C-alpha cells in the first residue's frame, strides 16, 4: 500500500510540474512557437479581478497562476487557468517587491527581493516561500549578508537556484554582477563567476544548460531611475562556469520587462525606460540557435513589473504598471494565442 501511495504521489507531482521562470516544457525542440493573433484584454466571467500591483511576480504552478508581491503587503491572487477566474490567497508576511519567482517542488520561492519605500529600499535577508496547496507562507533560508540584493534574476536548473546580478541599495545604486547558486536540499550557497556587467530590474531565463541575462539597467535614482538601460545579452554556461556576451543587442532597450523561453526562442515583453512615459508594449523574440531578433505584435497595453505565463496555446500577463514608475497600477489580464510551427 505504501508503494502504491508513493507511485501515485510521484505521478501527481510529475503531472503538476511546470518548468519555472518562463521555461517551456518543450524547450530544446527545433519547432518555433509564434503569436497567431493580437493581444486581447480578458473579460472575467464572474467579475473577479487581481489586485492592482507592480514590481510583482506572475508565475504558473499546474492549472493555476499566482500573482505575488508588489509594493505594500498584498494577498496572493490566484488565477484558475481553466475558468479564468480569480480568488484571493494569503497575504505576504512582509512587503516583497522587485524579484523573480522560482517554482521548486510545487512551491514558489521569492529571493533576491527588496522591501521598503523608494528610493531607499533594502534587500530582504531571507527567502520567502509560498505553498499553493496549503495557501501558506513560510520563511526559508537566510541569504548570506554580503550577497544580499534586490531586483535580481532568479532561475532553477537541476534543482539548484541561481541568483543573477541585482542592486544592493534600493534605487540609489550598488548594482552588482554577482552570480550565486543555492541548493535548497542542502541549504548551501556557492559564489560563482561574476557576469560581464551588472544589471537590475530584469528577468533571467534558462535554456539548454545556459542562463540568459537580458534587458534591465543599472539604476541610479539621483540621475533619473529609468536610464542606463542595457542592450547586451550575457550568457552563463553552467557546465563550464563561464560567461560570454551575445554579438547582437536587444532592439528595444528597457528594464522591468517579463521574459520567457518557448522552445528555442527567448521572448522579452513590456518594460520601462527613459525614452517614453508610457510602459513599453514591445514583444521581441530572439532565436537562440541562429541569433536573430524579431518584433512580434505588441501588447494591447504596455506594462512593466509583472511576469508572463504560458497555458496551452496562450500567453497570459496580469497586472503591472501602465507607465514607467509606479502609476497607474493595473488590475487586468491580457492574453495572446500562440501556435507551434
TrEMBL record:
Keyword Nuclease: no
Positions of transmembrane segments: none
SMART domains: Kelch (SM00612)
Family annotation (InterPro entries): Beta-prop_ATRN-MKLN-like (IPR056737), Kelch-typ_b-propeller (IPR015915), Kelch_1 (IPR006652)
Organism lineage: Bacteria, Pseudomonadati, Bacteroidota, Saprospiria, Saprospirales
Pfam family, one: Beta-prop_ATRN-LZTR1
PROSITE patterns: PROKAR_LIPOPROTEIN (PS51257)
Top-level taxon of the source organism: Bacteria
Gene3D superfamilies registered for this protein in UniProt: Kelch-type beta propeller
Signal peptide as annotated in the record: 1-22
Keywords per UniProt: Kelch repeat, Repeat, Signal
Domain Attractin/MKLN-like beta-propeller, chain residue ranges per copy: 39-271
Originating organism: Neolewinella antarctica
UniProt name for this protein: N-acetylneuraminic acid mutarotase
